[in-house]
Amino acid sequence: MNPISDHLSENLDLIFVGFNPSIRSAETGHHFANPHNRFWKILYESGLTPEKFDAKEDYRLLELGYGLTNIVSRPTKAADEITKEEYQKGREELKKKISFYKPTMVCYVGKGVYQEFSCKKSLPWGKQMESVIPGIIDFVAPSSSGLVRMKLEEVLAIYREIPLLLREVKNGEK
């Protein structure tokens, strides 16, 4: 299975970082393509996108100032198949990407993604007090996987903080 392409450009408002592509994403070449993944529904219902995009439209996030990447590029059936070595390599590559592209905020789609990136064990949902890369807001959101047991409304409440934070930053409030 081949990795899928990142959708990144300089000075984005937001980059979403997932664990790694699913098998379905690798087959289609699009991020969050598994029909059981709620990513596109969450973005729309939280107010981050003006309409519910399909995974085939993942590139359109760039038009909104958002990007997409993963901490590990190798597609797997489940995140527990990712090795420590892959996380180590992915952590370094992700630091380089974030430092180069300099988004306003990075949203880690899953607490485990941020735990692997930051090497922190205990952390809250939402904006983190200290960012891994200074000057860039780290935001931790629940995974959009259909396996997540949180109620959709609880997940949406966390994602709804993102557009508010971005507005505050643009208005110079934070």
From TrEMBL:
EC number(s) stated in the UniProt entry for this protein: 3.2.2.-
Uracil-DNA glycosylase-like domain span: 7-153
Recorded superkingdom: Bacteria
Top EC class, one word: hydrolase
GO molecular function: hydrolase activity, acting on glycosyl bonds
Keywords, sorted A to Z: DNA damage, DNA repair, Glycosidase, Hydrolase
Keyword hit for Cell wall biogenesis/degradation: no
CDD domains given in the database record: UDG-F2_TDG_MUG (cd10028)
UniProt xrefs under InterPro entries: MUG/TDG, Uracil-DNA_glycosylase-like, Uracil-DNA_glycosylase-like_sf
Keyword Secreted attributed: no
Protein name in the entry: Mismatch-specific DNA-glycosylase
Organism: Cytobacillus mangrovibacter
